[in-house]
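ok trying again, last paste got cut off:
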Amino acid sequence: MPFRELPGATPCRFRKGERIIKAGDPVEYVYYLVKGSVNREMVTNKGYESIFSCKRTADLADSLIGILTLYNKTYNSVSRYDFIARTDCQCYRIPKEECKQYLRNHPALLEEVLSHAVREHANVVDLFLARREGSGTARLCTLLLERAKPDAEGKLTVSKKLTNIEIGKLLSIHKVTVSRMLRALREEGTIEKTEQGIVILDEQRMKQYADNTQTLEYE
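nice, full thing came through this time. structure:
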């Protein structure tokens, strides 16, 4: 898809941790992500940094950073979120009107963007319900189970790339609380930490915590 060929499109790079779009700023450009991943974050009313989604190059609609803000008339195309490079990223910066005109000329792509918006809304609703109804332990264990993959030895392992800070942002829980819960899980033998990341030793117990059928005591 020739987003990089649109009039005014310019290549740009962002290092890990750099802000691509700042919350509170009007969106004048859409960024077409060609390499890397980007977190969509917000600071909650309680002061917690929360990750609402992670944009990647998996599909075209997900690769357009800031596109949905352009159609948010309630906020006059002002971003409510920070878009922060999760890894080193390569993008093309595209003037917003050029991007909107291209979508108008390609209804199938515009429909794909609309479908992406519906998915993002559903994800936010699910995240809100989980945070309101679930305990911190339940949400932590659910996240670890979702992210765990079998390693070379068949052990369920969560990559070390998922740091305590990022876990805290995903769950809207302070990183200190995350550390305490992980320590309690290690001390009882449910998980262990290795050079590869977090290894789940007792999947059944993790599921009980995730289902709120068992309570984790931590200080």
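cool. The chain has a mean pLDDT of 89. The chain has six helices and twelve strands.
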